[in-house]
Design goal:
By secondary structure, the chain is mainly alpha-helical. It folds into 2 domains: about 300 residues, no CATH class; about 90 residues, no CATH class. Helix content is about 70%, strand content about 0%. The protein has 18 helices and no strands. Helix 8 packs antiparallel against helix 9, helix 8 runs parallel beside helix 17 and helix 10 runs antiparallel to helix 15.
């Protein structure tokens, strides 16, 4: 029955997104890159087969960190892509996302199970005072902009007005994501665990302040909500039910969005579902349409690539927004598609190997699962960030350092207890 529950949850999720795309995405956003072409049997066949294969591979992934990571890729990338290609003749979009599932399944089988021995700096009274002071100093440039905030942004109003009037600088560009996606979420969860409720509320307010003073970027709110949701689910039900809970909540939201749409009401959360799940496949198809028949970038858009390429650096996302979409926007793509448009299949394999090395390394750190929401939020960011942007601007390097030196180890005794209550038996 446990495997049946797992299959039922993700098949229902697939069907809900299928209805969501067919009734809302196409009808409201077809002017962008969401099409509803004539159905082709081969696209439906490829979609269903690869969807079922990834489900089976995920169920067969034994070690817990790998399986949760695979479920996150299944949720954010594979299933939305499987829905997208049914109506859009670009199955490569799905194939690229399936490769990471296969890769994690393989390293799960090859992993010896040995953890990295690391020295952890625990949060004590002196350390807490230092961290609070350090973060408060980093927050000063945000605090002094408090006169410019629009409180309506908290209720998702006037978002584009705030974004158009937002004036960034180097400091805000390079600190907003590491603070809002790594350092503050880490301290927020740590303070909740230590029952330092005032400091936890302060950390939460700092994240909201970053959101309000940096153009009301929805990713900040999505990341904060995801971290807190993951924490409370893990504390109440355990890590084994984390991704299934996120999937069930999104399935319910998708179905509710479709029902409300039939009554001529476009729910506010529709934008979030479209942004989180369907922008990635849509932009991927646009890039693939162009780079399948045109020269690759040879990493000329990256700082490292500039060492081996002559000429000016290519602003890939801005160029694609202007030339491929015909709009003055950044057409952000994830690291796997970046690898492909940079160097073809070889570039894709390089990106895949780098991600697998990172996943394997994080697994061996044996990080406490209550911090898993920070990693899950990066699974979302990976779909919209070039490699250098992901590592530096979005703070993945900072996350790895925090995970190594600050995040406590997971209690393996608790893991053994949770194994007996897992949706998928045999998880270690």
């Amino acid at each position: 029955m446990k495997r049946k529950y797992f299959l039922l949850i993700y098949i229902t999720y697939f069907l809900s997104l299928l209805a969501f795309y067919n009734t809302i995405i196409y009808e409201e956003y077809s002017y962008f890159f969401y099409f509803r072409n004539e159905l082709k049997i081969e696209n439906i066949f490829i979609s269903l087969i690869l969807f079922l294969v990834t489900l089976l591979l995920t169920m067969s992934t034994r070690k817990r960190f790998y399986r949760v990571t695979n479920e996150a890729f299944l949720f954010f990338s594979v299933i939305p892509s499987a829905v997208y290609i049914i109506y859009n003749d670009r199955p490569t979009v799905l194939v690229i996302n399936v490769l990471i599932i296969i890769g994690i399944f393989i390293i799960d089988k090859l992993d010896s199970g040995r953890d990295i021995q690391r020295k952890i700096f625990r949060l004590k009274k002196v350390n807490i005072a230092f961290f609070v002071l350090f973060i408060s100093i980093l927050m000063i440039p945000y605090i002094i902009r408090i006169d410019n905030i629009n409180l309506a942004n908290i209720f998702l109003e006037d978002i584009y007005e705030s974004r158009s009037s937002y004036e960034s600088n180097v400091y805000l560009s390079y600190t907003s994501s590491p603070l809002s996606k790594v350092l503050l979420p880490f301290l927020l969860i740590s303070f909740i665990e230590l029952k330092k409720h005032f400091l936890a509320i302060l950390g939460l307010l700092f994240i909201i302040l970053i959101y309000l003073t940096t153009g009301a970027q929805k990713d900040v709110l999505i990341g904060m909500t995801l971290v807190l949701f993951c924490y409370f689910i893990i504390k109440k039900y355990g890590i084994s039910k984390l991704m299934s809970s996120i999937t069930l909540a999104t399935t319910a939201a998708s179905i509710l969005g479709v029902i409300l749409y039939y009554f001529n009401h476009l729910a506010f959360f529709v934008t979030y579902i479209r942004r989180a799940l369907f922008v990635g496949p849509g932009l991927s198809s646009v890039y693939l349409d162009y780079f399948t028949s045109n020269p690759y970038t040879n990493y000329s858009h990256s700082n490292i690539g500039q060492l081996f390429n002559d000429g000016d650096r290519l602003n890939l996302t801005r160029w694609a927004g202007h030339n491929l979409l015909g709009r003055d926007v950044n057409a952000n793509i994830g690291i796997f598609l970046e690898g492909y448009v940079s160097f073809g299949i070889i570039g894709l394999l390089i990106s895949l190997m780098m991600m697998l090395i990172l996943v394997g390394f994080l697994k061996k750190l044996n990080i406490s699962y209550v911090y898993m929401g920070i990693w899950i939020s990066f699974m979302y960011v990976i779909n919209f960030s070039l490699l250098e942007t992901l590592l530096i601007t979005h703070g993945l390097v900072i996350f790895v350092l925090v995970a190594y030196f600050l995040v406590p180890r997971e209690n393996k005794t608790r893991c053994k207890y949770e194994n007996r209550n897992s949706y998928v038996s045999g998880v270690k």
